Amino acid sequence: MKLENRIPKAARSMGVTEAEAKAALDEAARPKHTPLPWKFNQHDIGQRAGRITGRDSNHPKNDHIERTVAIICSYASKDENVANGQFVVRACNSHEELLRACEMAKGVLDTLLDLLPTLDLDSSFNNWSQEVHQKRFIVRSAIAKTKE
Fold first, then answer.
1. Mean of the per-residue pLDDT values of the chain
2. pTM (two decimals)
3. What is the pLDDT of residues 84-135, one digit of tens each?
4. Nearest residue to 95 (alpha-carbon basis) of 20, 36, 47
5. What distance separates the 2 farthest-apart alpha carbons in the chain?
6. Taking CA 102 as the corner, what is the angle to CA 100 and CA 104, rounded to the nearest 5 degrees?
């Protein structure tokens, strides 16, 4: 029997929905990126500004073995290429922490929106409530973009 055919029964036995079980299976099957943290190694070879490297996942016990993740090279100026490489490394290295912060913020906003109807607030509540809904939408959108 194929694994996909066993999902409904396994999901029920674990107390999760079939959709959650399939999502977890899809996530496990998705290729993984080179382990973080990444580094930007600048050098002076023509317009090539440098390369982004990370640990080689084939040698997890040896942090000194690096794998090239990307070479930063374009028709932009050398300074812009260096800035681009550094930006990519900062964004990737902070991704998980920022995602956790967004998920925490979403939880706080969800709880706040659940509590608001139970509070005795004046008419300014509607404007404030709309703003909280907008902020929650922004946070949810940011989280969703990380899963694309």
1. 80
2. 0.67
3. 999 999 999 999 999 999 999 999 999 988 887 777 766 666 677 788 889 9
4. 36
5. 66
6. 70
| Extents of the domains making up the chain | 1-30, 31-146
pLDDT at 63: 65
Closest CA to 142 of 94, 98, 89: 98
Provide long-range contacts, Cβ within 8 A and 24+ apart, for 98-103: 99/143, 99/146, 102/139, 102/142, 102/143, 103/143
d(Cα 36, Cα 96) in Å, to the nearest integer? 10
Helix segments in 15-124, DSSP class H: 18-29, 78-115
The letter for the amino acid at 58 is N
Q: Cβ contacts of residue 9 below 8 Å, gap of 6+?
A: none
